[in-house]
Amino acid sequence: MAEDLVLERCDLELESNGYDHHTEKQCQKGLVVRRGQPFQLTLYFKGRNYEARVDSLTFNVVTGPNPSSEAGTKARFPLSDAVEEGAWMASVVDQKNRALSLQLRAPAHAPIGVYRLSMEASTGYQGSSFMLGQFTLLFNPWCPEDAVYLDSEEERQEYVLSQHGLLFQGSAKFIKSIPWNFGQFENDILDTCLMLLDLNPKFLKNSGRDCSRRSSPVYVGRVVSAMVNCNDDQGVLLGRWDNKYEDGISPMFWIGSVDILRRWKNSGFQKVKYGQCWVFAAVGCTVLRCLGIPSRVVTNYNSAHDQNSNLIIEYYRNENGELDTSKSEMIWNFHCWVEAWMTRPDLKAGYDGWQALDPTPQEKSEGIYCCGPVPVHAIKEGDLSTRYDAPFVFAEVNADVVNWIRLLDGTMRKSTSDSMMVGLKISTKKVGRDEREDITHTYKYPEGSYEEREAFRRANHLNKLGVKEEVKVTMRIRVTQSMAMGSNFDVFAYITNNTAQKYNCRLVLNARTVSYNGTVGPTCSSKELHDLSLEPFSEKNIPLSVLYNDYSKYLTESNLIKVRGLLVDPAADSYMLAERNIYLENPEIKIRILGEPKQNRKLVAELSLQNPLSVPLEGCIFTVEGAGLTDTQMTVELPHHVDVDQEAKIRVDLWPRHVGLHKLVVNFESNRLKAVKGYRNVIIGAP
Predict the structure, then answer these.
(1) How big is the chain by its Cα radius of gyration, in Å?
(2) What pLDDT does 457 receive?
(3) Can you give the pTM of this predicted structure?
(4) Measured between alpha carbons, how far is 543 from 279 in angstroms, rounded to an integer?
(5) SS percent in the chain: helix, strand, coil, step 5
(6) How confident is the model at residue 618 (pLDDT cuts 50, 70, 90)?
(7) If residue 223 lies in a helix (H) or strand (E), which one and from where to where?
(8) Contact at 8 Å (CB) between 169 and 576?
(9) Please, what is the angle between helix 277-291 and helix 217-227, to 10°?
(10) Rounded to an integer, what distance in angstroms lies between the CA atom of residue 118 and that of residue 434?
(11) CATH architecture of the domain with range 6-138
C-alpha cells in the first residue's frame, strides 16, 4: 500500500495571479482573484510525489460564518480534467517532482468575499485534510459570464482600475472639475470594503442569506448605497449641509476616499463627519471599484429633490421673490450620484448597463436610506415601474418647476419662469482623459422631442405636455466675464419686450450667497426699480454690482452666488422670474515636479498658490495625497501669513511605489480661501 500523501506547503502564486486577475496591487498581503477566471496554486509534497492513479484530491471552499451548499457559500469539488459549467473546478497544469501546479476556478456567479480553501488527500482508504489558505474573490468585468462584464478594455481601465479621477461641481453655466483620489487598491482598503459588507444590517440579521446574495451586483450595490451613509447603520459618513462643521471636517475639504475609509476603520467604525453628495458618491465609487463593479461618479445640474413623487417642484415666494424655504421643495444647484455597470436579470430585457445608485441620504427606500440601482435607460424611457426608486431619480432629471407668488392679501399667482430647467449638463469624466463627458442623452431625450413627450406620458406626468403660453416679455440674468474669487463684478437683468405694447413694470434684483443644495444665505447686493418702462420691441440691460467686501462674509465653500430677478407688471397682474447661479473661480494651485519620476525613488513636488484677495491669508494649509505616490495623506501648515499678491509655497516628498500614470491631488485651506483644489498627473518610470 502506498504511503500517505503529505503536503509540505501551498504556494498561492500571489504575483502571477495578481497580474492575471488585475489585482496585483491588492495581492500584497494575500491572494485576491476574480470569479469566472482560473487562478494558479502550487502544492509541494514531502516524502513522495502525487500520483494520479493512486491519490485522490478533493477541495473545499467556504465563505461567511454559516456556509452551506444550498446558499452557494460552500462547495466541494475533485481534482479533475472534466469541465462542469457553473461549478467550482480544479485541474492539473503541470507536475515537476514533488511540485504539483493546479488551476482552480470559481463560477462566474459565485458570491464575492473571503474564502477559506482546504484539501482532502486520500490514498486508498486513508486520508488527510490540509488547510491551503484563504483568498478574496471579487466580481470580474473581464469575464463574459459575469454580471458585471464590460467588453471595452479602455472602459475597464477607467471604471475599474483607475484610482483617480475628476468630479464636477460649479453650476450649469460654469462647470468646475475637482480631482479625487479614489485609491481603491491602497493598503487595507479592500479589508475595509469587506468590513462594510459585514457591518450591514442584513448581514447582522441573517449572515448566511446576506453572504449568499453577494453573488449579485444588484444586491451588493444596494448594500453599498446604504452603508456609505450612516443614517440607519454603522455606515461611513454623516451628512451635513448647514455650514457648521467645527466638530468634524468640512465636506469641501476632502480630496479622496482613502482618508475617509481609514478614519472610519481606525475609529472602530464610527461615522466620519461630514459628507455631502459628491463625497458620498465618490466613496461609493471607491467601494464598488474595489469589489470589481465598474462604476463612475456623475453630476446632474439643477437636480430636483421631489419629496411627494408628483414630479413637480413647487417654490413659494413673497412679492419680492424671496423663497419660503419651509414650504418649498428644493432644486440642488448640482447633485452627484454613482453609476454602476451590471446586468439586470430581475427586470425585463433592455435594462442592462449603467444603473444609478445614490448613497446620499435623501429619502428612504424600502425603509432605509439608500437609492437604486435603477437602470438609466428606464429613466430615459419614463418606465417608473422598475426597481429601485425610479420615480425619485426620474424627478431629479425631469421634474417641472412651478413658482408661486404669495401676495400680501394671501392670494397666489403663478409666475412664468425663463430660468429653470431641471436635469442639465449631466456630466462624468471621459474615459482615459481629464475632460468632461456630457451624458445627458442617456437620461433623457431632447427637450420637446416626440420621444421625450412619450417618456413623460409613460411616467404619467402630463404637466410638460400642455401648450406653452407665448411669452411676451422675457428676462435672463447675464454676466460679462468669468468671475474670480475676490473680484468685484456686475451682473445684468437682460429684459426683452417682444410686443408692440409698452409696459410699466417693477423690477427687483437681488444677489445672495447660496450653498450647492439650494440653501440661500444673506443678501450681498440688491436693487429695486419701481417704474421701469419697457418700450415696444425693445431690450434693456439693468446692472447690479456685487462687491467682494459684501459677499466675502457670507460666501459658503460652494463659492456660489444666486442672482434673482423678479419683474412685475401690475396692470396685467403678471410675474416673471429669472435666476442664475454664479460660481466664483478659485486661484490655481501650481504643482511642479522636481527630479525624474522613477519607481521607489524619492520625488519632490513644489506647490504654490498666489493670494488673489485684497487681504492677507492666514492659517494656510496644503493637504496632499495620491494613490501610488503617497502612503498616507500629508498636511503642511505654513508658519506665516501670505500677503496680498504673494505666494504660499511648500515642498513635499513623494515615494512612488508603482510604475504608470498617477494623480497628485492637493487641497488648500486658509481663513479666507477654502477648499481650493489642484492636481498634477505624474508618469512614474521603471527604476
Answers:
(1) 29
(2) 77
(3) 0.93
(4) 37
(5) 15, 40, 40
(6) very high
(7) helix 217-227
(8) no
(9) 140
(10) 46
(11) Sandwich (2.60)
Torsions phi, psi for 277 (to 5 deg): -55, -45
b/e map 38-74, b = 16+ CB within 10 Å: bbbbbbebeebebeeeebebbbbbbbbeebeeebbbb
Alpha carbon distances (Å) from 500 to 256, 497, 503, 569, 574: 58, 8, 10, 16, 18
Output the furthest CA–CA distance in the chain (Å, rounded). Answer: 112
Euclidean distance between CA atoms 295 and 428, whole angstroms: 11
Instruction: Give catalytic residue positions.
Output: 277, 335, 358
Rounded-to-10 torsion of CA 666, 667, 668, 670:
-160
Q: What's the length of the chain?
A: 687
What pLDDT does residue 290 have? 98
**Amino acid letter for position 481:** Q
Q: Summarize the confidence of residues 48-57 as an average pLDDT.
A: 90
- The answer to whether the CB of 212 falls within 8 A of the CB of 220 is no
Per-residue three-class SS string for 108-147: CCCCCEEEEEEEEEEECCEEEEEEEEEEEEECCCCCCCCC
Q: How confident is the model over 657-674, as a mean pLDDT?
A: 94
Of 29-38, 268-277, 419-428, 643-652, give the lowest mean pLDDT range: 419-428
CA dihedral 496, 500, 506, 511 (to 10 degrees): 0
Helix or strand or coil: residue 75?
strand
Phi and psi at 83, nearest 5°, equal: -105, 120
- Asked if 582 and 483 count as a contact pair (C-beta separation under 8 A), the reply is yes
Lowest mean pLDDT among 15-24, 361-370, 434-443, 495-504: 361-370
Q: What number is the average pLDDT over the span 671-686?
A: 95
> Is the pLDDT confidence value at 361 over 90?
no
Do 162-458 and 469-585 agree at the fold level? no
Domain positions in the chain = 6-138, 162-458, 469-585, 589-684
626 CA to centre of own chain: 18
pLDDT confidence of residue 39: 97
Q: How far is CA 218 from CA 210, 224, 287, 366, 438, in A?
A: 13, 10, 14, 15, 25
For 162-458, give the CATH class: alpha beta
Q: Which residues, 6+ apart, have CB-to-CB distance to 180 below 8 Å?
A: 164, 165, 166, 167, 255, 256, 257, 282, 297, 665
CA-wise closest residue to 240 among 280, 274, 279, 283: 274
Note whether 361 and 548 are within 8 A (CB).
no
- Secondary structure (DSSP) of 292-309: T--EEEEEEEEEEE-SSS
Task: Collapse the DSSP code of 53 into the 3-class scheme (helix H, G, I; strand E, B; otherwise coil) and give the result.
Answer: coil
Contact between residue 102 and residue 93 where contact means Cβ atoms under 8 Å apart? yes
Cα separation, 242 vs 556, in Å, equals 10
Residue in 626, 678, 687 with CA at minimum distance from that of residue 648? 678
Domain 589-684 superfamily per CATH: Immunoglobulins (2.60.40.10)
Cα separation of 378 and 385, whole Å?
Answer: 9
Asked if CATH classification 2.160.20.80 holds for the domain at 469-585, the reply, yes or no, is: no
φ and ψ at residue 511, rounded to 5 degrees: -120, 130
pLDDT at 2: 63
Cβ count within 10 A of residue 486: 18
Choice between 616 and 576, residue whose per-residue pLDDT is larger: 616
Q: How confident is the model at residue 308 (pLDDT cuts 50, 70, 90)?
A: low
Please report the pLDDT score of residue 472 as a whole number: 80
Mean pLDDT of the chain: 91
